């Protein structure tokens, strides 16, 4: 039996997954993967069995690889920004 991952390794994986989730250009995909990432790591955090922690961790590592590839494809074919997303503010005139 292998040792369960350390807290630092889990946090590093969490940050990498969250960073990758935020790199999606599509609003819906981005928010879905951010929510899914948080839910996945809450489940890991609430787990106490070392073998289950190890299995959750290894599954999250595999999902991160898939997520990175998917984010690249999504960035290639990114569409228009939606109305619910933050828009860049327009430049205001100084005399108004």
Strand-helix topology:
Blueprint: H1 7-21, H2 27-46, H3 50-76
Description:
This protein has 96 residues and is mainly α. The protein has one domain. Helices cover 65% and strands 0% of the residues. The protein is built from three helices and no strands. The model has no long low-confidence stretch (mean pLDDT 87). Residues 8-65 form the Complex 1 LYR protein domain.
The geometry reads as elongated
Return the string of H and E elements: HHH
Q: Into which percent range does the helicity of residues fall? A: 55-70%
Mean pLDDT: 87
Distance between the termini: 70 Å
Q: Can you tag this structure with a few keywords?
A:
3 helices; Complex1_LYR_dom; Complex1_LYR_LYRM4; mainly alpha; 0% strand; ISC_assembly_LYR; elongated; 96 residues; 65% helix; Complex 1 LYR protein domain-containing protein
Summarize the structure.
The chain has helices at 7-21, 27-46, 50-76. It is mainly α. Helix 1 (7-21) runs antiparallel to helix 2 (27-46), helix 1 packs parallel to helix 3 (50-76) and helix 2 runs antiparallel to helix 3.
